[in-house]
């Protein structure tokens, strides 16, 4: 008589770390609910990601934008969150002129200026200060009115590396567990300039800016002023705590929320060539400049557009 062992029907005890990132299907919704998707008539759009990132072909950004073209580009920006334009080779003045189609330009006294105070120049050679590379962040959320967007052009590209990545924070919000959404909807968080720059500058450099940029509060989940979409609006560089929470609870929740930008399904990665332009919606995204090109040089210029107060 053969005896067949019956496999056990109970599993051994196992503990999963809380607030982990788990496998499984994700909601990948590029457009807001009810948004009418229409063809583009004035340029070609080549998607680079499922929910974020598209290359725009057939435009010369050195030429003035007619109102209809500006409106169609704005729709593309809202729908794709970051737009890429190859081999534009704009002068700084042309780059500023393109950005001004979306509003007044912003200055940043903490970063090196290019040809004018509203052009930031990132000249990264061996030994240069590694400002805002290798960290997911949204630009200048320490301001009362963080930037609407930014136009970045690569002047000099290393032979290998130096890519930039962007993450869609609307997709990040869509995929939060229901219990986390309940905790963060309606919550506010403190944003501060000091932690974002103390990694690069000493107290004597930063102290004059403490009064210029006092800590501000923004919603943890902001509403896009043009699409109405809900988006996570916290980041590792500038968000220090969630208002009204004990420090331990705030740190744990912020860590979980900031890790959402790390999910590949929400990302696009762009490999630069000289003269390429990226134009991104700073309200809806985070970005990450990959510093993997030492000892080579990488030179970029950025123009930022003034934004509104998050709500």
Automatic annotation (TrEMBL):
Residues 44-302 form the TauD/TfdA-like domain. GO terms for molecular function: dioxygenase activity. Keywords: Dioxygenase, Iron, Metal-binding, Oxidoreductase. InterPro entries: AtsK-like, TauD-like_sf, TauD/TfdA-like. The keyword Transmembrane does not apply. The keyword Iron applies. Belongs to the TfdA dioxygenase family. This is TauD/TfdA family dioxygenase.
């Amino acid at each position: 008589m053969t005896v067949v062992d019956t496999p056990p029907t109970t599993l051994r005890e196992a503990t999963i770390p809380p607030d982990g990132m788990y496998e499984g299907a994700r909601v990948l919704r590029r457009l807001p609910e009810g948004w009418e998707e229409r063809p583009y008539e004035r340029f070609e759009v080549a998607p680079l990601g499922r929910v974020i990132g598209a290359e725009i072909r057939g435009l010369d950004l050195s030429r003035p934008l007619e109102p209809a073209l500006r409106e169609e580009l704005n729709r593309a920006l809202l729908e794709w969150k970051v737009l890429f334009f190859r081999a534009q080779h704009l002068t700084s003045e042309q780059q500023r002129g393109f950005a001004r189609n979306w509003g007044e330009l912003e200055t940043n006294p903490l970063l090196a200026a290019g040809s004018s105070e509203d052009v930031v120049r990132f000249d990264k050679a061996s030994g240069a200060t590694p400002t805002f590379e290798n960290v997911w962040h949204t630009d200048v959320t320490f301001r009362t009115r963080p930037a609407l967007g930014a136009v970045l052009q690569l002047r000099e590209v290393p032979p290998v590396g130096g890519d930039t990545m962007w993450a869609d924070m609307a997709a990040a919000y869509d995929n939060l567990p229901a219990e986390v959404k309940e905790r963060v909807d309606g919550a506010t968080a403190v944003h501060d300039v000091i932690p974002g720059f103390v990694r690069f500058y000493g107290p004597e450099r930063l102290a004059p800016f403490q009064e210029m940029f006092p800590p501000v509060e923004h919603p943890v989940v902001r509403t896009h002023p043009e699409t109405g979409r809900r988006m996570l609006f916290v980041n590792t560089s500038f968000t220090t705590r969630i208002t009204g929470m004990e420090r331990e609870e705030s740190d744990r929740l912020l860590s979980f929320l900031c890790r959402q930008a790390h999910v590949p399904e929400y990302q696009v990665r762009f490999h630069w060539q000289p003269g390429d332009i990226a134009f991104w919606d700073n309200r809806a995204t985070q970005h990450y400049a990959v510093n993997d090109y030492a000892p080579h040089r990488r030179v970029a210029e950025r123009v930022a557009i003034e934004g509104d107060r998050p709500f």
